[in-house]
């Protein structure tokens, strides 16, 4: 064995020994013993058991010790580490119905992600930040890809994109219709007596679900601006007659192309704004949040977005929903949440797509300017 390989093996063995010792002491539940071990030996807080994938944080959650959880997090334990089954320590806390332990882990996640954003780093902490360069996670790759509009065997309309490796991902799927229905209902609160038609901005057309709902309001919008960048979506919109609808203006490009231009600001503000862009990270969504106050017409105007980031894990979804609310508050927007039931996990709902939402409840945000 080469010297370098030998040294690496010695290091790995020492790391495993120290990490295993940490897990054993944490499992015993004696916080003073854990403090002493950490002070004396400085064991690796990131260590995870090679079989179970459990970290010290998972173990502390399992024995329901909020005190140990707080200490481990202060010492650098990774709040979003997942075990071999894909569960975080927060999921373990949820499984024991220990709200206090769950809150400790979740709040640590919120603090961590908020600090990353404040420092100007990409938000995500390894959860939302991705190195995936396929059309599923890269805007450039998505815009260069071919889309497939079709109706699946269950009569569900879907728009699919090739994510590489023979896998497809739904850009938008029919199961989202109840979410869109409730979103428009909530956005329209306060505008029920409007008789002149609202001014509406939507970013990202997809299947046109929410735009169709906007067009079918009791009073047709006097202005309905749609920003869409994908060539295949634009072609689909043309084939469906969207370019010819009264009051509809289609801006061909990304929202970043128009956000500081007269093409958008020249409309004089919007009563409602919605955004649902595919393959953009949270950092870009947060950048859009910053512009929302300048795009809204007034205090009674409303804003929402498709809240799907982190939606394959309950704690991640909770963290990023709360993180979004905090950032929106910084930009002068208050958020009211409501719950929408999501169809079950039946494979038929997904039409072979990678599942990008696996929770039973969708958290619907409605934002308005602070008084």
UniProtKB/TrEMBL annotation:
Keyword line: ANK repeat, Cytoplasm, Methyltransferase, Nucleus, S-adenosyl-L-methionine, Transferase
Main location group: cytoplasm
GO cellular component: cytoplasm; nucleus
Domain RMT2: 133-371
ANK repeats: 52-84
Pfam families: Ank_2 (PF12796)
A single GO BP: methylation
Catalytic EC class: transferase
GO molecular function: protein arginine N5-methyltransferase activity
Subunit structure: Monomer.
Membership in a protein family: Belongs to the class I-like SAM-binding methyltransferase superfamily. RMT2 methyltransferase family.
UniProt-listed PANTHER family: GUANIDINOACETATE N-METHYLTRANSFERASE
Its job: S-adenosyl-L-methionine-dependent protein-arginine N-methyltransferase that methylates the delta-nitrogen atom of arginine residues to form N5-methylarginine (type IV) in target proteins. Monomethylates ribosomal protein L12.
Protein name: Arginine N-methyltransferase 2
Organism: Tulasnella calospora MUT 4182
Taxonomic lineage from the root: Eukaryota, Fungi, Dikarya, Basidiomycota, Agaricomycotina
